[in-house]
Structures are given as structure tokens and as C-alpha cells.
């Protein structure tokens, strides 16, 4: 009901040509940032606070930009003299996380599917993967080959063209949905971040920050926080394993596709082929990274982040873990009676992952990259309020 009322309020404001009023979460971020702007103790912690000092007010677009620039490292919460139980109740990581979740819904494409962010939980993600795997297993069982020894070629179970026909539309839709969503986000935050176009130095700096996960170091290199005041680099390391493991798996798929269509070398591939090396390294890295992130998520401090988004976070971690482990298991089971069943499980996990990419935690990497690009552009412009150079 509150969502319908908010949509009606926004539609009425747009129809009358009035600014769309901020949501409660956006207003709370603006309130806290006004306090932070007066204190500035955390100015060197991450990109958020230098960007904050370039503003005296925090309208909607600025709040969306800063919220997605935040990496939720927790350093500012543990350093803040106004954090709960102080009456000011400043909790930047939690307030920013709530707005990030809102931006994912607001910028979802098609807009009607934005509500899936609230429902994309652990149970739904695993159930979707299991349901798709069961459907595929039933299809194979009807042919009488669910538990047999078909050889090492999984295309004997599902023909190549059938797999392309199933997965290509889902992947292309997910890519399109993410691209259109971040395009709208970019158009809204660009005027609030100087409006200047991208430059080569700004792009290089933002790329460096993304690839190194620079802002998970706590601002001092010792790491961020997780369950207590202790510094830890675990989140950064497990994020790296997950991020690069995903990229290696994607690269393995891309190389295999090129090998199939351009070189006439169809799967399956054996060591030491490039697709197999990339896929094996990516699968191991993704397994270790997601297992570590799951453990950290379970132990995360209650004041870090938005508790309402934990099911979405864990659903995404679980799908990545299931995709990686089922892929490695499928490799190990080639030529055994278990291959067909493991292939159905792996394909179900991959299909569920693709289907939920635009409406799950994966979106945070896309929106955060866009925010880092705008920050790198903005910081190269003259300071707008004359309070000093960056």
C-alpha cells in the first residue's frame, strides 16, 4: 500500500511539473549527510565524503549518486561519534543501503518488474534453480537417459542449438534490462555531478577503483569492518575471488562460443584447452569467494546495511555458488551415470542466475561502477562551493 501511495504521489508531482518529493529513505540520507558535512571526521575514508563536501544540499539525484558510491565498508559507522545510540542516530552504511535498494527498484526495466527486488530472496532463487533443473531432468527422463553413461559429450543430452535457443534470449534480455536501467540512472545523476562528459583519465581512474575494489580498504589500507570494530580485508579478498571468478567463467563461455562458431571446435573441451583452463580457474575462484561472502554475510554487524535486503544478497550468493560447484561437479562426472543429472542441475542454476541478474544483487556492481565514473568526472571539475580543492 505504501508503494502504491508513493507511486501515486510521484505521478501527481510529474503531472503538475513539480519536483518528485524524496522518499523517507532519501530524506534520512540527506539529514545524516548534513550532519556529516558539518563534522567531516570521515572525509578521508572513501569516495563518498569528498563528494559530499562538494554539496550544501542533497536533493534526490545527489542522494542516489552518493548512495551508489558507498561500498558499505562500515568504517564511518565505527568511527562516528554520532552513531546510535546517540540521539543524532547517524548510520551512513545502513541509510545508504536502504536508498540503494530503492534505486534498483526505481531504475528497473521494465518498471513493473522493479518489485522483484523485494521478492528475490534466498528461497525464491534456490527454488527457481531447483524448478528449472527438475524440468530439465524430467525432459531427459522421458527419453530414458537420466541415469546412464552417454559418454563425455553433454551435447548428446541437450543439443547445442537447443541450449543456445534457451539461454541466449534470457541472457540478452538481462543485458538489455541492466543497460536500460543504468542508462536512466546515468541521465539522472550526470547533471548532479557537474554534467561534464567522460574523459580518458576519469575512466581509467574509475576502472582502477573497480578492479581493485579500492574503497573496501577502510580508507587506510587495513580493511573494513564486518562483525565488530576489528579491521579485516576478508570482504575485499572474497569479493575479488567472486568478481574475478565470475569474469573467468564468462570468458570461458565467450572463448568456447568463438571456438564453436569461428574455429569449428565444438565442446566438450579437455585440458589444456583455453575454455577448460578459464572455466576451471573461474569455478574454483567463484566457489571460494561465494563461500567466504556467505560466511561474512551471516556474521555481519546488525547495524551494517539493510536487513531487508539480506535475502536478496544471500539468494545471489547461493546462485553463484550453485553455478560454480555444479559446473565443477559436471566436469568431474563426465562419462559417469551422474552426468545427465548434474548437467540438469547446472543448467537450472545458470538459467536462474541469468533470469534474476537484472533484479538482484548483481545490479549493485553496475550502478556502483556508474557512480564511480561520475565521481571521477566530478572531482576533476572546479569545486562548486569554494571550500577548497579536492
From TrEMBL:
<dbReference type="InterPro" id="IPR012830">
    <property type="entry name" value="Citrate_utilization_prot_B"/>
</dbReference>
<feature type="transmembrane region" description="Helical">
    <location>
        <begin position="241"/>
        <end position="262"/>
    </location>
</feature>
<feature type="transmembrane region" description="Helical">
    <location>
        <begin position="122"/>
        <end position="142"/>
    </location>
</feature>
<feature type="transmembrane region" description="Helical">
    <location>
        <begin position="162"/>
        <end position="182"/>
    </location>
</feature>
<dbReference type="InterPro" id="IPR036197">
    <property type="entry name" value="NarG-like_sf"/>
</dbReference>
<keyword id="KW-0472">Membrane</keyword>
<feature type="transmembrane region" description="Helical">
    <location>
        <begin position="274"/>
        <end position="294"/>
    </location>
</feature>
<feature type="transmembrane region" description="Helical">
    <location>
        <begin position="315"/>
        <end position="333"/>
    </location>
</feature>
<keyword id="KW-1133">Transmembrane helix</keyword>
<protein>
    <submittedName>
        <fullName>Tricarballylate utilization 4Fe-4S protein TcuB</fullName>
    </submittedName>
</protein>
<feature type="transmembrane region" description="Helical">
    <location>
        <begin position="339"/>
        <end position="359"/>
    </location>
</feature>
<keyword id="KW-0812">Transmembrane</keyword>
Amino acid at each position: 500500500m505504501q508503494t502504491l501511495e508513493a507511486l501515486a504521489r510521484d505521478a501527481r508531482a510529474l503531472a503538475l511539473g513539480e519536483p518528485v518529493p524524496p522518499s523517507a529513505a532519501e530524506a534520512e540520507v540527506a539529514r545524516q549527510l548534513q550532519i556529516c558535512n558539518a563534522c567531516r571526521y570521515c572525509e578521508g575514508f572513501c569516495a563518498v565524503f569528498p563528494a559530499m563536501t562538494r554539496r550544501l544540499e542533497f536533493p534526490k539525484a545527489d542522494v542516489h549518486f552518493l548512495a551508489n558510491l558507498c561500498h558499505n565498508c562500515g568504517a564511518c559507522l565505527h568511527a562516528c561519534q554520532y552513531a546510535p545510540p546517540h540521539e543524532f542516530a547517524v548510520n551512513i552504511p545502513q541509510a545508504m543501503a536502504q536508498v540503494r535498494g530503492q534505486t534498483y527498484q526505481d531504475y528497473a526495466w521494465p518498471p513493473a518488474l522493479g518489485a522483484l527486488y523485494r521478492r528475490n530472496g534466498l528461497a525464491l532463487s534456490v527454488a527457481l534453480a531447483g524448478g528449472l533443473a527438475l524440468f530439465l531432468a524430467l525432459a531427459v527422463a522421458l527419453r530414458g537417459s537420466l541415469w546412464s553413461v552417454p559418454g563425455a559429450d553433454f551435447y548428446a543430452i541437450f543439443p547445442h542449438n537447443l541450449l543456445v535457443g534457451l539461454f541466449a534470449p534470457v541472457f540478452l534480455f538481462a543485458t538489455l534490462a541492466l543497460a536500460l536501467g543504468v542508462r536512466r540512472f546515468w541521465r539522472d545523476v550526470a547533471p548532479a555531478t557537474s554534467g561534464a562528459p567522460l574523459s580518458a583519465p576519469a575512466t581509467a581512474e574509475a576502472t582502477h577503483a573497480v578492479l581493485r575494489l579500492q574503497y573496501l580498504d577502510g580508507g587506510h589500507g587495513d580493511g573494513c569492518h564486518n562483525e565488530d570494530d576489528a579491521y579485516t580485508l576478508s570482504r575485499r579478498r572474497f569479493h575479488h575471488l567472486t568478481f574475478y571468478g565470475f569474469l573467468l567463467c564468462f570468458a570461458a563461455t565467450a572463448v568456447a562460443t568463438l571456438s564453436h562458431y569461428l574455429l569449428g571446435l565444438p565442446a566438450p573441451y579437455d585440458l589444456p584447452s583455453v575454455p577448460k583452463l578459464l572455466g576451471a580457474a573461474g569455478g574454483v575462484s567463484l566457489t571460494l569467494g561465494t563461500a567466504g561472502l556467505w560466511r561474512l554475510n551471516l556474521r555481519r554487524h546488525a547495524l551494517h546495511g539493510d536487513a531487508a535486503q539480506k535475502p536478496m544478497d544471500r539468494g545471489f550468493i547461493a546462485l553463484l555458488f550453485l553455478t560454480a560447484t555444479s559446473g565443477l561437479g559436471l566436469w568431474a562426472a563426465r562419462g559417469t551415470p551422474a552426468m545427465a543429472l548434474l548437467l540438469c542441475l547446472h543448467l537450472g542454476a545458470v538459467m536462474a542466475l541469468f533470469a534474476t541478474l537484472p533484479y538482484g544483487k548483481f545490479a549493485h556492481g553496475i550502478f556502483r561502477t556508474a557512480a564511480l565514473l561520475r565521481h571521477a568526472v566530478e572531482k576533476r571539475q572546479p569545486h562548486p562551493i569554494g571550500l577548497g580543492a579536492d
